[in-house]
Predict the 3D structure of the following.
Amino acid sequence: MGSCAQRVIGKHACIFGASGGIGGALVEQLVASGNYHVIHAGSRSGTGDFARPVSRFAFDLGDERSIAAVAGHIAQSAPLDLVIIATGVLHLDEGLGPEKTWQALDPAAMAEVFANNTIGPAMIAKHFLPLLRRDHRAIFAALSAKVGSISDNHLGGWHSYRASKAALNMLVQNFAIELRRRNPQAVAVTLHPGTVDTALSQPFQRNMALGQLFTPAQSAAHLLGVIDRLSPADSGGLFAWDGTRIPF
């Protein structure tokens, strides 16, 4: 991974999941960078307390039509230099935690996790990869997880979450191959943000060592630093918050 960022003022970015901890922090830090003419910030409600130049929009991750409608609107402005998907679930809200055994597998719960972690991001990719700039470097990144690495799995459990993130990693690798034919300078990756102090991780923070838990702002800064250093050779990969490449 090299230092390949182009410092172009007036770029356009789109963040999905802007109401979440990491997504909101990403939007705020992109605003603070001063490098973006427009930052499209999407959430289910379409609201958020962001300063200019943020343009808020609403979308439903489970409704492809809403994603397509947003893409149609954004397509009327300049091409996108950066798309980040910062959405996802660990488990459902009905009291079901991540499965610790195959005996806990539930088809409806699995389908919901895959809908949020795999299918929804895939639909975003379907409609937003064509909006990426074609004349120079452009980045498509989706938040994944280290536990989505098949070769790094030594503990088992968390079946739906692991499998949905592994599937996401494979999809983005596929997208990278296709994207390369359209723009050799474009990059598509999945990113592991580390363990971040958000609602998703709160039930699992108790035994964490000092320094292993990031604030959303810290995680966002790490992720943007990784994105800044990505090169076309990195396209298709899964990268940790510190830039380390995680094997599939």
